[in-house]
Input
Amino acid sequence: MKKKMKIFVITATALVAVGAVGAIAVGTNGFKDVFAWDNFAHTAASLTIDNTDLSKKAVTPNLDFGAPDAALKTVAVTGLGKEFDEDYIRIPETVAIGGVVYTVTGIAENAYLGGGHVLGVYIPGTVTSIGMNAFQDDDYVRAGDDYVSGQTLKKIQFSSDSKIAQVDGTAADGTTKYGFFEKLYELRGVVAPTGLTSVGYHAFFGDESLQSFAFGAKVAAVGESAFGGCASLKEIGLSDAVASIGASSFASSGLAKFVGGTGLAAIGAQAFKDCHALKQAILRGGTLASVGDGAFDNAWYSTIYTNNPTAALFTEAANPEKCPVYVLGQWSYSNGSVGVTDGAKPANSSASSAA
Output
């Protein structure tokens, strides 16, 4: 059986949050632009964090810090203190240790800030580095993939002046590990840095409750398995700055609709594999140069709309389900809706036509 799909929207001019239903304004580019996590109204009544601006919370006491750098006057958060008993974490910009004030510039590897009953974390603009397992739950990580209790973290909010440019699971030595937000099963949304340029390897992999992601217009790449297994993600729309989406980037996600920007040039192998709910893949740009093998494998009900004047990219290897492919001149896109020219047949005419 075939199911339904989900989508993201990234515009070139504004910070947008992507998700299902919400307070929606139609932008000049025809996309449905949602301008902040706080505007979302689609989450269950039991989720009380939606309208919480974590920057307004009091600075959190009882955080642990590592050995400060005496020369640079900097320090990193290393975890939750023994007396910690808070629902929200607002990391301070500065902290006094031994009578000396240090700037908080990092969250250490294995800080496990998602432990206890934490619902949200606010990260100030002074933080420039984040280690692996910064937000995961200590017990969860130690016990392995099958342990899910204690995962309460629902929202992560970066300061508007954050210097973080990349979120992924690539360590400083180049090896790939856990993504920043990987397998945070209760995570609903992230208000990301406006200067973000890359959503990389496994960034949100397995975040099955993720419904929205807010980010600016500088993102140029979506990495391998970045949103793989995000079952609650409904829609995605890329800004014109995004040039590539990696292998398995949205595989097994809940996407029903995907909109690629004019700059999209490469779609990785199995990018939409097992997206059983995907109905529309709208590729607005004419720059698309490659579509990897199995990109639309098991995306049974999808229809592909491309502005590239040839359907040759969508070979049987890339499109094993023979999803209908409509090319430039056969379709139009306005206010979030696709129109198909009367009588138009998909370029791969052996495929059955789709609405």
Observations:
- Residues 331 and 340 are 4 Å apart (CA to CA).
- The two ends are 18 Å apart (CA to CA).
- Residues 138-143 form the longest helix (6 residues).
- Helices lie at 138-143.
